[in-house]
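Our consortium's second objective concerns turning raw sequence data into structural hypotheses that experimental partners can test. To show how far this objective has progressed, the report includes one record in full. It was chosen at random from the queue rather than selected for favorable results. The single chain below, 529 residues long, was entered without modification.
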Amino acid sequence: MGGPGGTFTTSNSDPISGPGGAGSGFGAGFFLHGPVGAGAITFAPGPGEVQVVGDVIADQAGSGGIGDDARASGITKSGMGTLTLTADNTYTGATDVDGGTLMVMGAQPASSVHLTGGATLGGTGRTGAVTVGGGATLAPGAPEGTLRVAAVALAAGTTFAATLGATPAASSKLAASGTVALGSAALQLMGSGGLPVGSERTLIEQGGADAVTGTFAGLPEGASIALGNRRWRVSYAGGDGNDVTLTAVEAAGTSTAIVSHAPDPVALGASVTVGVSVSPMQADVDTPSGTVTVSDGEASCAIALPATSCALTPASAGGRTLVATYSGDGRFAASTSAGEPLEVIAVERVFSGTTATGTGTGVFTASFTGGGMFCTLASAALLPAPPGAAPVPPTAPEQQVFAHGLFTFRLEGCDEGASVDVTLHYPSVLAAGTRYWKYGPSDEDAAPHWHVYPATIEGRTVTFTVRDGGAGDGDGIADGTITDPGGPAVPAGGTGSTVPVPALESWVLALLALMMAMLGLTSARRGRP
């Protein structure tokens, strides 16, 4: 096998020559004979293996052919590896490929090729008619170059794979002398594809006069397919009128639109999610890639297609305009959306100042959390200790001292019925026994009055919660507005709950003296022997 005098044996179940009968090889090559399908030689390279046959494979039409054995046979390629035929073979039986890859590098025009089972046919030689079925792939070239066939028929579910190189010679091509039937096979392109607009490559060159029948899957006449950063328009009437060609075309027009943005209005410091679409202006099988930039004129965010949204955080308040700009990708032209208005609202949640009583060193600060996105501090003030003229409450709780005065605030734009957490930092540590007093309605009394409000006091910090229309809300109405005058106070005369005791009346003192005298007399009598 493969040289003068080489021999080989093959199983032969034909009853005429007997089971296991020996065959012989002579000369440089394989000589095939026997009933069709019974005398075929099978090549089965394993995964990653390559078998190369460099000598001729021919029919044995002369000596040794007796009766049915004189008919031509063929070869079978199975296994997941690669079989490469480099000689100009003359055998006339079929070449069946049901696995792996067959590379035909020589001429064997008398043998038809049948592909099934995920097999692949490639090479730059010549074969008879080729039929592709069972999920197989026809990939002319090695990978560039021309594979010549008598005719070709691809079935649905199969693949035609082609390489687009920098020049036609560096590309792959199938040349068919007879009919071409594409049968909705998938087209798979390889290579860079980054060629100038107008570049043309021939995928299938038909030497006969018949028109190409069928199309590639999803690619009608004039449709485009992407490779790298270029679009290629397909034609089944290219070349001399019946060739399958690809032409590099100008980038397709696109339409970019902002399809959604929320929330609107948005609070300054919060993010708005912007949804974007980029669509081709004409029907195409491929879709745009690249980047979309969304901007409000100051801040921006980026979307890497096929993603469809990004989060933008405005840098300033006021009326803004959102615009989305698609960068293009070579296959598709850049485009810009129409503007979409966006309202950005500044939300104030912090206050600082010097207490009206001037106590302590440093400043007073107040901060607010919760209440909804647009719950903002509309006004705030540090007031003297009560009583006083409005906005200072007209009365003061009895025997309480407001060393730091009062703090009043007004929150607006809150969610109706929402709660807000309030944190107050005073310039100095609050005395032991300090409680937080509020002026306004309470759950027990709807009329404005002083009452101790539940609060946590630690060091110089006071924290409490107010609710729109409920606890701590001075107007008592769930209308999105919360008002609150109040402040920390300690009992007069010292810390804790101690209060001065009023002087006793004289008659009460006399009565106490009489009682003490009687107690003393009683004790003296008990002490006698």
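The partners drew two points from this record. The first helix runs from residue 506 to 526. The chain is about 5% helix and 40% strand. Both points have been shared with the crystallography group to help prioritize constructs.
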